[in-house]
Specification:
single chain, about 220 residues, alpha+beta, Nuclear Transport Factor 2, Chain: A, 5-stranded antiparallel beta sheet, 5 strands
């Protein structure tokens, strides 16, 4: 019995061309998929900011100066649109890891209450302002920077450049992590203040909690 084997030899130049074509196809596929993901991120971030600004405008129209009602609306605003747990973790800096669970929960609660009080006290300063998105840029696959400008409709105040750093993860709704005013990060500024408080008090995380409680009492 005879057996035949037929071996096809591909010239080296042909192999090189095939490899090049295969790599090109993979590269094109990556280029196609990346903008889709980035586009989805940006859409989610823009929608969040647009919805948030709409909520602020509605609350301003209904605001009668009643602080209790104002705080209620701001609480709803923060919980719906801001990444409170993420803000708490980042703003505590490296001391977050050293804090125990009770301290973390207590700090997050008091930080949130301090934010609500601060916004409530200054909420009427937003009257007469309009916000327009200028551009949005994906920062990796979990963050989008939405940049825009607050403009005083009456022209009495200069325009304010604002950037919203929005966390965009596939497993959870988009939320604001940081606000940059004239390129100054409010979260980084708060983190620096918090670290200074802890270091001034011998590294005690409880000192930061006490500072947040004092801030609330002063509001």
């Amino acid at each position: 019995m005879m057996s035949f084997s037929h071996q096809i030899t591909v010239p080296l130049s042909t192999k090189t061309q095939l490899n090049w074509i295969a790599n090109l196809i993979i590269f094109i596929a990556l280029l196609i998929s990346m903008p889709v993901q980035a586009s989805s991120q940006i859409e989610a971030a823009n929608r969040l900011i647009t919805d948030m600004v709409g909520d602020v405008e509605s609350y301003l129209l209904a605001d009668s100066g009643d602080i209790a009602k104002r705080k209620e609306n701001i609480t709803r605003l923060l919980d719906a649109h801001f990444d409170i747990p993420g803000i708490a973790r980042f703003s505590a800096g490296p001391y977050w890891r050293a804090a125990n669970e009770v301290e973390r929960v207590t700090y997050t609660k008091n930080m949130r209450e301090a934010m609500i009080g601060t916004i409530a006290r200054n909420f009427d300063q937003l009257v007469g302002l309009s916000f327009s998105i200028i551009d949005s840029q994906a920062k990796g696959n979990k963050m989008v920077l939405v940049r825009g400008t607050f403009i005083d409709k009456a022209g009495k105040r200069p325009p304010i450049s604002v950037g919203w750093r929005v966390v965009t993860q596939a497993t959870s709704p988009a939320k604001v992590l940081d606000v940059e005013i004239e390129n100054i990060s409010m979260l980084v500024t708060q983190k620096q203040e918090n670290i200074a408080i802890i270091r001034k008090n011998g590294g005690r995380f409880s000192a930061l909690i006490e500072a947040m409680k004092q801030r609330q009492r002063n509001q």
